[in-house]
Amino acid sequence: MPRPFPFSAIVAQEDMKKALLMAAVEPLLGGVLIFGDRGTGKSTAVRALAELLPGIDTRNGCRFNCAPDAPQDVCPVCSPPNGGKLPKTKKIRTPMIDLPLGATEDRICGALDLEKALVAGEKDFEPGLLAGANRGFLYIDEVNLLEDHLVDLLLDAAASGVNVVEREGLSIRHEARFTLVGSGNPEEGDLRPQLLDRFGLGVDVRTIEDLGQRIEVIRRRDAYEADPESFCERWSRKDAAIRNRVVKARGMLRQISTPDDVLARMSQLCMSLGIDGMRGELTLMRACRAAAALSGRNEVTWEDASDISPMVLCHRMRRDPLDDAGSAPRVERAVAALEGGILSEVGYG
Amino acid sequence: MDDLGSLRGLPPRLTGAPPDTWQDALLAARIFAHCGPKIGGLWLKARAGGVRDAFLDHLGALTGRESWIRVPPSVSLCALTGGIDLPATTLAGRLVYRPGLLEKACGGVLLIPMAERLEAPVAALIGAAIDTADPGSGSDDQRARFSLIAIDECAGPDEHPPAALADRLGLIVDLNAVSWHQVKVPSEPVSADRPPLIGNVLVDDRDLELLSVLAQAAGAPSLRMLRHLHVICRMIAALNGRDSVSQPDILTALRLGLGVEFCPQPERLPEQAASEQQEEHAALPDCPESQEADGTAEDPLQVSQALSQLCDLDAAPTEGTIAGLPEFVASQAQASPRAAAGKSGAARKDARRGRPVSTSRSAPYPDARPHLIATLRAAAPWQAIRSRNRQLLAERLSNSPRRPVRAPRILVTKEDYRFQRLRHETPSTAIFLVDASGSTALERLGETKGAIEQLLARCYVRRDEVAMISFRGTGAETVLSPTRSLVQAKRRLAGLPGGGATPLVAGLQRGLEMAVGVRRQGSTPILVLLTDGRGNIALDGTPDRHRAADELNGLATKCRALQIRCLCIDIARRPREAVATLAETMGAQLHVLRHADARQMSDVVNLSLQETRA
Predict the structure, then answer these.
(1) CA torsion A71→A74→A78→A82, rounded to 10°?
(2) 1.10.8.80, 3.60.60.20, 2.40.50.140, 3.40.640.10: which CATH number matches A256-348?
(3) Cβ neighbours of B167 in A, within 8 Å
(4) Residue A291 has what pLDDT?
(5) B588-605: pLDDT as tens digits
(6) Which of A190, A213, A156, A201 lies closest to A12, judged by CA?
């Protein structure tokens, strides 16, 4: 099976790459929503990310991706019914589950094993896509076209980290800690605002306009298609560098401090943009921590916040149905105003 | 409609023979056969007929028609992806999977007839399958490696295949303008020639830049398309036995891949031409660059001619001289409100969510799962008879190899299956926008109130809602927010003041905001605008007739773009052109009620509400 296109070889789209890496560092961010033009490498980037990240440990034959030291009761492999022998542990690639649009609720959550129910008359749980995505990524292309009730279900599982199945006489809960990545084209339909702000980061991708970069995309793609193996070999060192950054960032994430004045300014920013609830500030802080960790710093700075704020806040703002302009300029203006205000305070002080 | 476009605004071709569409189609067929899934597929714009059949036959001869899988017009998602074959599973006593169409098409061609009727989710699924088949996806699912032929039979600018699909199709063939006598199928199919290797064909950086700039100028900035164009122009060079791509190849690739043609500039007055020439050069930094290139080319005359064409093309989007641009470029703007109006939130009897209402024998939607308990309950009474039957059958088949290994505990047959039916209430909301200004007689206001009350009384059964916004003086106010309570409506409408100026724009804006909100809640909004069309107050409350007209036009266009169903009721003493124009811009139905009484008005709106459920 050919290796996916290397993450480091993706040209431009820095916002999208940064958002994905931040989500990989801090699973609590709550997923990434990539909205934008067609043919901008959304799927390529997500698939490349799964390849890039360090693998996870689990046991042979486990379908719930249980960690070897934390077996779940549901899993017949990791918690054998009457003290049977545990299978060996193994390292697998970070799970990257593609959620097809046609997927049914049963396929996603898992359901009664129809084969056993109809043929043998046994009640058994057949794990679904959420179980497979545990400790990894769940990718939904065209998330705006997904049936509403399925989106509700996914977001609920992503936010709580638990998948609860209560149907057909089954009552089962198992871990489903995954990073949700959704992509879509807003021209074909929008997401409900309640769903929008459940995504931690929202990135707007545009087609690359720069001629040189466009050429570079075609060239790299062509080289990759001609010989995937050697192309990946050529980029493997850069990929490894990014992998190390992510691993290091994950390690130091909990030690990163957020100064009070930066936190205060974040709250001011959210208030000036009229963002309801605490989710905006919380996500902004977490995202800033992830960004600081990625760049190897021990402290969050205001630069992190002002860089990241459009990504965190744009999709949370109440949208004017008659306003065609994007909300990114509004966030930038608010940031600038805040900085201006702070600077003048400093000046007067 | 491309023909219409060229008749209306586009300059006629003055010089040079137009590229022969049929020859282009044949070339596209060869490229399609050789490149296969690499370029996604082929977008065939053609109505049913001999020309299309001839082309498809030719294509079939090139690619092997037997490997074609035809997708039925209204295909369900589960038919594409496959799934468990329930009847076969119970019969065989083990899990039997039914392969989906995408799997069946593996290694062959997936043919989509009537692609303009394809629903967005289906198109997205097919697009995703093309993507995962891509070697770059890293997916181990390599079975879905197929190429696509989408036959687009669109009749007007309102119809076009979903953008998710169109973006992934590398070639465009438009056979609508080809007449039967032009069709000459090559006697012996070219399939025998061995596929040329495009790996050895080189593209100059400068040529690639040119390709990128032109594709962008032609309204196709997607990098996926650029990738396809890159493959196509290399394939053209390879078919001609060259190992580098020349500029005519690029022109051909653009013609085949984007469907753009070159319309040479019409003869112009010299001074005008000169000034425009300068503008073009000023606007296009790459023109001098590419003209440098023609020194190195073999045939300077031909290439410079081609280059001037290129510059024309590059300038064309600003002048509107490109013929045959792919439709999806402007799909958003062209969408007609009437085409989709009322379908979005209409009643869903076979909903996928909502309250369970009953169980039924037939699946409410194509990929529904049976309701297990109800199914077993239906099967229970028959168990004794069935097991006896089965024993008899087993005795008869005792030496047949098809004999099941052991008898299942429960015998479930096809007619036992029961499906849960869900009902999801999706009401409609009629939003009345009432002109309460002095220019409208007060009596009409009274009639409107009456109409609303009658409507509420009538549509209570259907759980429809009614809202009312009145505009007078300098702004609009929400008199009645969406409600289905007759009592509340009566109370609110009791003391409605009238008189003053006509802030039509403010009213429409408020109505539009409310409609968008209502739609977000899952209801279908219907705007009912009662006006005489003489707005004289701008959005900010100043009496500026011209600005008000501009703003009104903008809002009306917006309304059309949002695809909100509108009714325009002219309540002037004499029908006015202003209202007709407004209705036209909004995409609204126009009604002239000269002697508007409450009953007539509520009839009109009620009819419209009912239509949304049809």
Answers:
(1) 120
(2) 1.10.8.80
(3) 38-39
(4) 93
(5) 888 777 666 777 777 878
(6) A213
Angle ∠(A270,A275,A279) on CA atoms, nearest 5? 85
Q: Are strands B97-99 and B82-84 parallel, antiparallel or unpaired?
A: antiparallel
Residues B575, B584: Cα–Cα separation, whole Å: 14
Return the domain boundaries, chain A. 7-55+93-213, 256-348
Query: Would the CATH topology of A7-55+93-213 be identical to that of A256-348?
Result: no
- H helices of B397-441, in order, are none
Q: Measuring CA to CA, which residue among B163, B517, B257, B40 is closest to residue A36?
A: B163
Contact criterion met (CB below 8 Å) for B550 and B556: no
Residue A34 CB: number of other CB atoms within 10 A?
28
CB atoms within 10 A of CB B393: 12
Nearest CA to A196 out of A22, A32, A306, A29 is that of A32
Chain A residues 76-95 with CB within 8 Å of chain B: none
* Tokens matching residue B563: 């695809």
A9, two tokens: 């070889």
Nearest to A199 by CA among A265, A283, A126, A270: A283
Which structure tokens are listed for B476? 């609009």
C-alpha–C-alpha distance, residues B534 and B471, integer Å: 12
pLDDT range class, residue A342, cuts 50, 70, 90: low
Using the structure block, give the residue that is written with the tokens 């059958």: B393
3-class SS of residue B268: coil
CA distance B296 to chain A (A): 22
Task: Give pTM, 2 decimals.
Answer: 0.65
**Surface of A (201-260) touching B: CB under 8 A:** 207-209, 211, 214-215, 217-219, 221-222, 224-226, 228
Chain A neighbors of B225, CB-CB under 8 A: 39
Nearest Cα residue to B151 out of B183, B112, B193? B112
From chain A, the residues in CB contact with B136 under 8 A are 2, 4-5, 44, 47, 221, 224-225, 228
Name residues whose C-beta falls within 8 Å of residue A76's C-beta, 6 or more positions apart in sequence: none
The per-residue pLDDT of chain B, averaged, comes to 71
Number of structural domains chain B divides into: 4
Contacts of B264 (CB under 8 A, 6+ apart): B11, B13, B14, B15, B16, B309, B312
Using one digit for the tens of pLDDT, what is the confidence trace for A196-255? 777 889 888 888 888 888 889 888 988 888 888 899 999 999 999 999 999 999 999 989
Torsion angle in degrees (nearest 10) through CA of A47, A51, A52, A55: 130
CA dihedral defined by B222, B227, B233, B234, rounded to 10 degrees? Answer: 170
